């Protein structure tokens, strides 16, 4: 199901008004608002993820309200910036639940901030759609918790799938000592056993490290290694990439989807050339075949985002867009904001074509994306190129 809500919000302002009014009849000001809460890392080490998320939530809530709201009700957005700190994320989540009394929460930029919120939303029985990557967020399934990005497990699977195509079977892993990095490491080690890939080196680095040449020198001196995978987010992966080139390591270098943003390319500079990673179709929208159901969605979203902010579109902005659209479409299908009904409607999302792929959730799957939703991309001449 490609909802009319999605299409209307991705078009121009004129088309938005024309289409959305048709499915969201009524006068928004005459009804109680739909209260959407958000915790994002708009500042701090994960700001290149959280800032685009915040911008998109504000932009599309405004567009929905200008078009008449959802079923005649305006959307009221309350956003808090946790700065990437788990304790602040927990505090703001508590405020959203107890003081702001939100109907649904969209956010949790990082795995650490998301997991700080999870027990609170579970106890409060309030739907929560995370924007973070680790598989632990939805596996095992938690009744009130959902997520929009692909998982770290999927990233490891996609990387190893590409390695096999290149005839590579021995991997050196270097991961960040953080929530996302730790989970990515665990998933990589597990997937490697399943995929017949031997992990011949297992190094870690700190999120604030400015030099990782010691760890990379060990990898360089490992004669068995055929490829290297970096699992992290923020500035760390760019530091690793620069040090990698400085040491003259010539093995194929992979990153995770945690750096699927032009900000990584800017931070790493020329060192990013030939780096491969799994990413959503959003980063290569123009390169997708016309037959791809995502093509129209990601092309329109890219246009709206870049016109609104005069900056390149971000995968992480897309995660926020998908989270908001899934939530609002669920409100429409649930006929209101009764939390139990809203939770059920989110879980019943089927065929939603978003920026991350086609989403079909179920009681056993609170993400709803398949491995086909990932594309392998490579940095070429300072831009993303679809690996075919």
Q: How would you sum up this structure, described in words?
A:
With 388 residues, the protein is an alpha/beta fold. It contains 13 helices and 14 strands. The protein has two domains: 230 residues, Rossmann fold, CATH 3.40.50.2300; 128 residues, Response regulator (Rossmann fold), CATH 3.40.50. Helix 1 runs antiparallel to helix 2, helix 3 runs parallel beside helix 12 and helix 12 crosses helix 13. The chain is globular. 55% of the residues are buried. This is ABC transporter substrate-binding protein.
CATH architecture assignment name of the largest domain: 3-Layer(aba) Sandwich
Euclidean distance between termini CA atoms: 28 Å
Radius of gyration: 20 Å
Give the tally of structural domains: 2
Q: Structural class given helices, strands, pairing?
A: alpha/beta
What percentage of amino acids are in beta strands?
Answer: 15-25%
Tell me about the biggest sheet?
A: 5 strands, parallel
What's the helix and strand layout?
Layout: H1 4-10, H2 13-23, E1 34-40, H3 47-66, E2 75-81, H4 86-98, E3 104-106, H5 111-124, E4 128-130, E5 145-147, H6 152-165, E6 170-176, H7 179-195, E7 198-205, H8 213-220, E8 227-231, H9 236-246, E9 253-255, H10 262-268, E10 276-279, H11 294-309, H12 315-334, H13 339-347, E11 352-353, E12 358-359, E13 375-380, E14 383-386
Parallel strand pairs: 1-2, 1-3, 3-4, 4-5, 6-7, 6-8, 8-9
Antiparallel strand pairs: 10-13, 11-12, 13-14
Helix pairs in contact: 1-2, 3-12, 4-5, 6-7, 9-10, 12-13
